[in-house]
Task: inverse folding
């Protein structure tokens, strides 16, 4: 039995020594890699410190100075410009509608004078002249007055349209061509 014990002990020692040898060999390989990785990293850091990474152009310098916030700044500026443009166009449309509403309210009294049967020829012509001073917004009411069966109102409205033709011929001709009124001769001559 002692021989068996000796063999068993010697097998265990050889297994331990083989395992120890493998472990020692692996540790030696890892240690051999460690300095090479550290050296490589040190070499890369040294190489990057030696380089001049500053951009040459002004735009490059600006972007380097702005850094990661540059795209955000550009988007903010674009949104600001678009917002201002949209706000401005909406404000313009609102003001145009307010002007048309105010003009309609102010023309109402003059249209009432033209519609009054007691009004004289001078009063009707004066009302037509005052209405024609409103320009583009007065075209439709004047065309409406031209269709009335009164003896004085269509004549005064035609004179008012004549005054509008002097100040705003493009809008008058555009409206008349849509309405296809018989008075489009002047517009046809202007467009030729």
Result:
């Amino acid at each position: 039995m002692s021989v068996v014990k000796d063999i068993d002990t010697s097998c265990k020692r050889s297994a331990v020594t083989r395992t120890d040898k493998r472990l020692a060999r692996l540790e030696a390989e890892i240690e051999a890699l460690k300095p090479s990785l550290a050296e490589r990293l040190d070499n890369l850091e040294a190489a990057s410190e030696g380089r001049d990474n500053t951009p040459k152009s002004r735009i490059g310098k600006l972007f380097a100075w702005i850094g990661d916030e540059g795209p955000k700044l550009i988007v903010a500026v674009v949104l600001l410009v678009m917002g201002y443009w949209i706000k401005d166009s909406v404000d313009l449309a609102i003001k145009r509608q307010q002007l048309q509403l105010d003009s309609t309210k102010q023309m109402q009294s003059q249209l009432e004078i033209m519609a009054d049967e007691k009004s004289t020829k001078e009063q009707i012509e004066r009302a037509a002249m005052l209405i024609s001073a409103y320009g583009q917004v007065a075209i439709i009411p004047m065309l409406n007055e031209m269709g009335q069966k009164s003896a004085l109102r269509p004549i005064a409205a035609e004179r008012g349209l004549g005054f509008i033709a002097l100040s705003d011929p493009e809008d008058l001709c555009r409206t008349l061509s849509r309405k296809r009124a018989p008075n489009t001769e002047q517009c046809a001559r202007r467009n030729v």
About this structure: The radius of gyration is 47 Å. The chain is about 80% helix and 0% strand. The chain has a mean pLDDT of 78. Residues 53 and 103 are 66 Å apart (CA to CA).
